[in-house]
Specification:
With about 240 residues, the protein is mainly β. The protein contains two helices and 17 strands. Helices cover about 5% and strands about 55% of the residues.
Length: about 240
Amino acid sequence: MKKILLLFASLLFISCSINITDWHKDGLNKKVRVIQDRTFLAELNEEGKIIKGKEIGGLFVGNQKKYYNKKGLVTEKIIYQDNNIGIDTHKKFEYDKKGICIKRIKLDSNGDIWSEHIFKYKKKPNRIEGTWIDVKDKIVLQKDTLLYDKRGNLIKNGVLSYRYDENNNLIESILVYHGTDHKSITSYSYDSRNIPTKMVQNTSNREMTREFAYKLDRNNNWIEKIEYQEGVPKFITERSIQYY
């Protein structure tokens, strides 16, 4: 569950900052239109070479497809089930002229609207106070108070807080478990190209280190990622990229 909460914290980070594009938060160079990831278990063959094993999927694994508009904001996200058979989650997002997400639509497996939520907010210096409302039932789903630094990075959202380096790369996220004193602290390291190379997750009872190795395309966007956990290869993710 703690692993899921840590990954959930990273999901909340999507599309919440102001003046910072989703291209930047997703570590993408140039004008990317679509990315699609497929994740496999990593295995070693008889020669000790890392090879792809069984394809896996689901909300917290990585088999996904994202669409970006020409301003670099995510407009649609599809997460697939195991082996890309069926859709786990399908969402669309709409933004106002300030680049703030004001509508999120969840679709069912047939592409029909399952739920529709709108975000009504007041913007103050380095602060947004808003409410998510269900369009159909007219009920308040969630109230958010979002705090930002001077560069437009999200630094506080409820039980989540974030820190960044001088290049606006996320270097630390802290999740405080509701109703407890327990925290999960995740730190991130990058190479000279601002590509994430290491992630260390600390909870109340364990520490996990993840390291990443990549193959890059001509735009220095990764098209293959190998994830190591405590030095052992665990996952291989292949990425296809379409540009504007």
